[in-house]
Amino acid sequence: MRSALNIARDALSSGDVPVGALIVNEFGEVIASGRNERELHQDPTAHAEILALRRASEVTGQWRLENHTLVVTLEPCAMCAGAIAQSRISTLVYGAWDEKAGAVGSVWDILRDPRSLFKVEVRAGVLAQECGGLLKEFIQGVRKRD
């Protein structure tokens, strides 16, 4: 999670919400990473998780990422939760909860819904205070500029 936090901090340079993600293979090696790049590219789908999933698929040459773990600093939204399920990621680890748009326990629980076709192990709240603190600092900074 600390590595994902460092990736999240890189998003600040482009004015993006500081969210970082990385994907680890079954051997514990980081094979891909992503950070929010919506502002940088003016792309509503450029969430950290989506970019990390795309890069992991490029590295592995496969869209199925079974036996891989996604680590992300913020609870995924509905779009990202859907992409995580579709990618067949085995495990999701996230830091801070997103009580406005979270789709893995806060507002919805897409990945653990009993009707879901794909099962993902979820570990929530890892370094939650540190992950949440980075987001709060960013939001407070934005409010000061407005």
UniProtKB/TrEMBL annotation:
GO terms for biological process: tRNA wobble adenosine to inosine editing. It catalyses: adenosine(34) in tRNA + H2O + H(+) = inosine(34) in tRNA + NH4(+). The keyword Cell membrane does not apply. It holds the Pfam family MafB19-deam. Its cofactor is Zn(2+). GO terms for molecular function: tRNA-specific adenosine-34 deaminase activity; zinc ion binding. InterPro entries: APOBEC/CMP_deaminase_Zn-bd (IPR016192), CMP_dCMP_dom (IPR002125), Cytidine_deaminase-like (IPR016193), MafB19-deam (IPR058535), tRNA_aden_deaminase (IPR028883). Residues 1-107 form the CMP/dCMP-type deaminase domain. Keywords: Hydrolase, Metal-binding, tRNA processing, Zinc. Gene3D superfamilies: Cytidine Deaminase, domain 2. It is an enzyme of class 3 (hydrolase). Its EC number is 3.5.4.33. Belongs to the cytidine and deoxycytidylate deaminase family. ADAT2 subfamily. HAMAP family: tRNA_aden_deaminase (MF_00972). Homodimer. NCBIfam families: PRK10860.1. This is tRNA-specific adenosine deaminase 2. It comes from freshwater metagenome.
